Amino acid sequence: MSNELIQTNTAKLTAAFATALVVAETQIHDDLAYNSIKEWDSTAHMLLIAELENVFNLMLDTDDIIDMSSVAKAKAILGKYGVAF
Amino acid sequence: MQQASQMWHTDEVSAFNVQLKPLQQDDLAQVLIWRNSPEVSSQMLDQTEISPERQQSWFERISSDRRQMQFVIYYKNQKVGVCNLKSPTALAVAECDSLDTGFYLGEAKYRGTILAFFAALALNQYAFEQLGAKLLKAQVKSSNSAALRFNQQLGYQADAAQPSEQMVAMTLVPQAHQNAAAKFATFIRN
Protein backbone atom coordinates (compact mmCIF):
# COMPACT_ATOMS: atom_id res chain seq x y z
CA MET A 1 0.00 0.00 0.00
CA SER A 2 1.55 3.32 -1.03
CA ASN A 3 1.99 6.16 1.42
CA GLU A 4 0.27 8.39 -1.10
CA LEU A 5 -2.90 6.28 -1.04
CA ILE A 6 -2.89 6.15 2.74
CA GLN A 7 -2.51 9.93 2.91
CA THR A 8 -5.36 10.32 0.44
CA ASN A 9 -7.62 8.05 2.48
CA THR A 10 -6.74 9.90 5.68
CA ALA A 11 -7.54 13.21 4.03
CA LYS A 12 -10.84 11.85 2.72
CA LEU A 13 -11.75 10.50 6.15
CA THR A 14 -10.88 13.79 7.84
CA ALA A 15 -12.91 15.73 5.32
CA ALA A 16 -15.86 13.36 5.72
CA PHE A 17 -15.86 13.78 9.51
CA ALA A 18 -15.52 17.56 9.23
CA THR A 19 -18.40 17.73 6.74
CA ALA A 20 -20.75 15.47 8.72
CA LEU A 21 -20.02 16.94 12.13
CA VAL A 22 -19.64 20.51 10.84
CA VAL A 23 -16.38 21.07 12.69
CA ALA A 24 -12.92 22.18 11.55
CA GLU A 25 -10.65 19.51 10.13
CA THR A 26 -8.15 20.42 12.85
CA GLN A 27 -10.62 18.96 15.39
CA ILE A 28 -10.53 15.54 13.77
CA HIS A 29 -8.05 13.26 15.53
CA ASP A 30 -8.00 9.57 16.43
CA ASP A 31 -9.25 10.13 19.98
CA LEU A 32 -12.33 12.09 18.93
CA ALA A 33 -15.29 9.98 20.12
CA TYR A 34 -19.03 9.79 19.57
CA ASN A 35 -20.94 12.04 21.99
CA SER A 36 -17.67 13.57 23.27
CA ILE A 37 -18.52 16.84 21.52
CA LYS A 38 -21.98 18.24 21.01
CA GLU A 39 -21.52 18.20 17.24
CA TRP A 40 -21.15 14.40 17.16
CA ASP A 41 -24.64 13.42 18.26
CA SER A 42 -26.91 10.73 16.87
CA THR A 43 -28.08 12.85 13.94
CA ALA A 44 -24.54 13.77 12.95
CA HIS A 45 -23.61 10.11 13.34
CA MET A 46 -26.11 9.15 10.66
CA LEU A 47 -24.81 11.91 8.38
CA LEU A 48 -21.28 10.68 9.06
CA ILE A 49 -22.13 7.12 8.10
CA ALA A 50 -23.76 8.32 4.88
CA GLU A 51 -20.74 10.52 4.11
CA LEU A 52 -18.21 7.74 4.73
CA GLU A 53 -20.21 5.29 2.62
CA ASN A 54 -20.36 7.84 -0.17
CA VAL A 55 -16.71 8.90 -0.02
CA PHE A 56 -15.33 5.36 0.13
CA ASN A 57 -18.09 3.82 -2.02
CA LEU A 58 -19.07 1.04 0.38
CA MET A 59 -21.99 -0.08 2.53
CA LEU A 60 -21.31 -0.67 6.21
CA ASP A 61 -22.85 -3.52 8.17
CA THR A 62 -25.21 -2.57 11.03
CA ASP A 63 -22.69 -3.85 13.58
CA ASP A 64 -20.07 -1.53 12.15
CA ILE A 65 -22.42 1.46 12.20
CA ILE A 66 -23.11 0.76 15.87
CA ASP A 67 -19.43 0.17 16.62
CA MET A 68 -18.08 3.33 14.98
CA SER A 69 -17.52 5.17 18.22
CA SER A 70 -14.36 7.17 17.45
CA VAL A 71 -12.16 8.30 14.59
CA ALA A 72 -9.66 5.54 15.40
CA LYS A 73 -12.48 2.99 15.40
CA ALA A 74 -13.70 4.32 12.06
CA LYS A 75 -10.27 3.72 10.58
CA ALA A 76 -10.20 0.17 11.95
CA ILE A 77 -13.69 -0.58 10.63
CA LEU A 78 -13.01 0.91 7.21
CA GLY A 79 -9.85 -1.20 7.13
CA LYS A 80 -12.06 -4.29 7.11
CA TYR A 81 -13.57 -2.99 3.88
CA GLY A 82 -10.15 -2.58 2.26
CA VAL A 83 -9.60 1.11 3.03
CA ALA A 84 -6.03 1.52 4.30
CA PHE A 85 -4.87 4.19 6.77
CA MET B 1 -51.39 -20.60 42.77
CA GLN B 2 -49.73 -21.13 39.40
CA GLN B 3 -47.07 -18.60 38.44
CA ALA B 4 -47.37 -16.71 35.17
CA SER B 5 -44.59 -17.61 32.76
CA GLN B 6 -45.17 -14.92 30.16
CA MET B 7 -47.06 -11.75 29.36
CA TRP B 8 -50.66 -11.98 28.17
CA HIS B 9 -49.75 -10.62 24.73
CA THR B 10 -48.13 -12.81 22.12
CA ASP B 11 -47.22 -10.53 19.18
CA GLU B 12 -43.55 -10.52 18.24
CA VAL B 13 -42.36 -7.43 16.39
CA SER B 14 -39.62 -7.68 13.80
CA ALA B 15 -38.65 -4.32 12.32
CA PHE B 16 -35.70 -1.92 12.03
CA ASN B 17 -33.13 -4.69 12.51
CA VAL B 18 -34.47 -5.63 15.96
CA GLN B 19 -37.05 -7.97 17.44
CA LEU B 20 -39.41 -7.23 20.30
CA LYS B 21 -40.66 -10.30 22.16
CA PRO B 22 -43.11 -10.41 25.06
CA LEU B 23 -41.39 -10.48 28.45
CA GLN B 24 -41.20 -13.97 29.94
CA GLN B 25 -40.33 -15.43 33.31
CA ASP B 26 -36.98 -16.56 31.89
CA ASP B 27 -36.07 -12.94 31.09
CA LEU B 28 -36.49 -11.64 34.63
CA ALA B 29 -32.98 -12.35 35.94
CA GLN B 30 -31.37 -10.46 33.07
CA VAL B 31 -33.86 -7.60 33.29
CA LEU B 32 -33.22 -7.27 37.04
CA ILE B 33 -29.47 -6.89 36.45
CA TRP B 34 -30.11 -4.17 33.88
CA ARG B 35 -32.76 -2.39 35.96
CA ASN B 36 -30.55 -2.28 39.06
CA SER B 37 -27.47 -1.08 37.18
CA PRO B 38 -26.57 2.53 38.08
CA GLU B 39 -26.72 3.58 34.42
CA VAL B 40 -30.37 2.52 34.13
CA SER B 41 -31.72 3.07 37.65
CA SER B 42 -30.33 6.62 37.79
CA GLN B 43 -32.74 7.57 35.00
CA MET B 44 -35.76 6.02 36.74
CA LEU B 45 -38.16 7.72 39.12
CA ASP B 46 -37.79 4.81 41.53
CA GLN B 47 -34.06 4.41 42.11
CA THR B 48 -34.23 1.92 44.94
CA GLU B 49 -32.58 -1.48 44.51
CA ILE B 50 -35.21 -3.96 43.35
CA SER B 51 -35.10 -7.43 44.90
CA PRO B 52 -35.86 -10.61 42.93
CA GLU B 53 -38.93 -11.14 45.12
CA ARG B 54 -40.26 -7.67 44.40
CA GLN B 55 -39.64 -8.13 40.69
CA GLN B 56 -41.39 -11.52 40.73
CA SER B 57 -44.37 -10.01 42.49
CA TRP B 58 -44.45 -7.20 39.89
CA PHE B 59 -44.32 -9.68 37.03
CA GLU B 60 -47.15 -11.78 38.44
CA ARG B 61 -49.23 -8.65 38.86
CA ILE B 62 -48.68 -7.19 35.39
CA SER B 63 -48.43 -10.34 33.25
CA SER B 64 -52.22 -10.49 32.91
CA ASP B 65 -52.76 -6.72 32.92
CA ARG B 66 -54.16 -5.80 29.51
CA ARG B 67 -53.37 -2.15 30.15
CA GLN B 68 -49.70 -2.82 29.47
CA MET B 69 -47.39 -4.69 27.14
CA GLN B 70 -43.84 -5.47 28.18
CA PHE B 71 -41.22 -6.46 25.60
CA VAL B 72 -37.62 -7.60 25.61
CA ILE B 73 -35.57 -6.08 22.79
CA TYR B 74 -33.39 -8.49 20.81
CA TYR B 75 -30.59 -7.65 18.41
CA LYS B 76 -29.14 -10.58 16.48
CA ASN B 77 -30.84 -12.99 18.91
CA GLN B 78 -29.24 -11.30 21.92
CA LYS B 79 -31.29 -9.61 24.61
CA VAL B 80 -30.27 -5.96 24.73
CA GLY B 81 -33.02 -4.06 26.52
CA VAL B 82 -36.63 -3.59 27.54
CA CYS B 83 -39.53 -1.50 26.29
CA ASN B 84 -43.20 -1.18 27.07
CA LEU B 85 -46.51 0.34 26.10
CA LYS B 86 -49.01 1.33 28.77
CA SER B 87 -52.53 2.64 28.77
CA PRO B 88 -52.80 5.68 31.07
CA THR B 89 -56.50 4.89 31.58
CA ALA B 90 -58.57 1.89 32.65
CA LEU B 91 -58.86 0.86 29.00
CA ALA B 92 -56.82 -1.99 27.56
CA VAL B 93 -53.80 -1.08 25.44
CA ALA B 94 -55.57 -2.06 22.23
CA GLU B 95 -58.54 0.16 23.05
CA CYS B 96 -56.65 3.27 24.04
CA ASP B 97 -55.87 6.08 21.56
CA SER B 98 -53.00 7.46 23.63
CA LEU B 99 -50.30 5.19 25.01
CA ASP B 100 -47.33 5.80 27.29
CA THR B 101 -44.01 4.39 26.12
CA GLY B 102 -41.05 3.24 28.18
CA PHE B 103 -37.68 2.14 26.97
CA TYR B 104 -34.08 1.42 27.93
CA LEU B 105 -31.13 -0.49 26.56
CA GLY B 106 -29.52 -2.62 29.24
CA GLU B 107 -26.43 -3.65 27.32
CA ALA B 108 -23.91 -0.86 27.82
CA LYS B 109 -22.21 -1.30 24.45
CA TYR B 110 -25.41 -0.37 22.64
CA ARG B 111 -26.47 2.62 24.73
CA GLY B 112 -26.38 5.86 22.78
CA THR B 113 -25.98 4.05 19.47
CA ILE B 114 -28.23 3.86 16.45
CA LEU B 115 -29.56 0.56 17.81
CA ALA B 116 -31.49 2.53 20.43
CA PHE B 117 -33.29 4.34 17.62
CA PHE B 118 -34.06 1.08 15.84
CA ALA B 119 -35.67 -0.41 18.94
CA ALA B 120 -37.72 2.69 19.67
CA LEU B 121 -38.82 2.99 16.04
CA ALA B 122 -39.94 -0.66 16.07
CA LEU B 123 -41.99 -0.08 19.24
CA ASN B 124 -43.55 3.14 17.94
CA GLN B 125 -44.40 1.57 14.58
CA TYR B 126 -46.08 -1.37 16.31
CA ALA B 127 -48.12 1.00 18.48
CA PHE B 128 -49.30 3.12 15.57
CA GLU B 129 -49.75 0.48 12.88
CA GLN B 130 -50.79 -2.65 14.78
CA LEU B 131 -52.51 -1.24 17.84
CA GLY B 132 -53.94 1.81 16.11
CA ALA B 133 -52.69 4.32 18.65
CA LYS B 134 -53.20 7.97 17.73
CA LEU B 135 -50.65 9.44 20.14
CA LEU B 136 -47.62 8.15 22.00
CA LYS B 137 -46.51 9.84 25.18
CA ALA B 138 -43.15 9.75 26.93
CA GLN B 139 -41.89 11.33 30.11
CA VAL B 140 -38.19 12.05 30.51
CA LYS B 141 -36.26 13.55 33.39
CA SER B 142 -35.47 17.14 32.46
CA SER B 143 -31.85 16.49 33.51
CA ASN B 144 -31.57 13.64 31.00
CA SER B 145 -30.59 15.72 27.98
CA ALA B 146 -29.52 12.65 26.00
CA ALA B 147 -32.99 11.12 26.33
CA LEU B 148 -34.63 14.41 25.41
CA ARG B 149 -32.55 14.66 22.22
CA PHE B 150 -33.19 10.97 21.55
CA ASN B 151 -36.96 11.45 21.71
CA GLN B 152 -36.78 14.56 19.54
CA GLN B 153 -34.96 12.54 16.87
CA LEU B 154 -37.82 10.05 17.03
CA GLY B 155 -40.28 12.86 16.30
CA TYR B 156 -41.51 13.57 19.84
CA GLN B 157 -42.30 17.16 20.73
CA ALA B 158 -42.38 18.60 24.24
CA ASP B 159 -45.91 19.30 25.46
CA ALA B 160 -46.99 22.88 26.09
CA ALA B 161 -47.97 22.03 29.67
CA GLN B 162 -45.39 20.18 31.75
CA PRO B 163 -46.15 18.01 34.82
CA SER B 164 -43.24 19.36 36.89
CA GLU B 165 -39.83 21.00 36.65
CA GLN B 166 -38.20 17.58 37.01
CA MET B 167 -40.03 15.88 34.15
CA VAL B 168 -40.60 16.68 30.50
CA ALA B 169 -43.76 15.26 28.91
CA MET B 170 -43.45 14.61 25.18
CA THR B 171 -45.91 13.54 22.49
CA LEU B 172 -45.42 11.69 19.21
CA VAL B 173 -47.98 11.71 16.40
CA PRO B 174 -48.04 9.19 13.52
CA GLN B 175 -46.81 11.63 10.83
CA ALA B 176 -43.82 12.69 12.93
CA HIS B 177 -43.02 9.02 13.52
CA GLN B 178 -43.15 8.31 9.80
CA ASN B 179 -40.82 11.22 9.09
CA ALA B 180 -38.36 9.93 11.68
CA ALA B 181 -38.60 6.37 10.37
CA ALA B 182 -37.85 7.57 6.84
CA LYS B 183 -34.77 9.38 8.12
CA PHE B 184 -33.43 6.18 9.62
CA ALA B 185 -34.53 3.86 6.80
CA THR B 186 -31.24 4.31 4.95
CA PHE B 187 -29.47 2.57 7.78
CA ILE B 188 -31.62 -0.54 7.94
CA ARG B 189 -29.40 -3.39 6.76
CA ASN B 190 -30.05 -7.10 6.43
From TrEMBL, chain A:
This protein's name: Acyl carrier protein
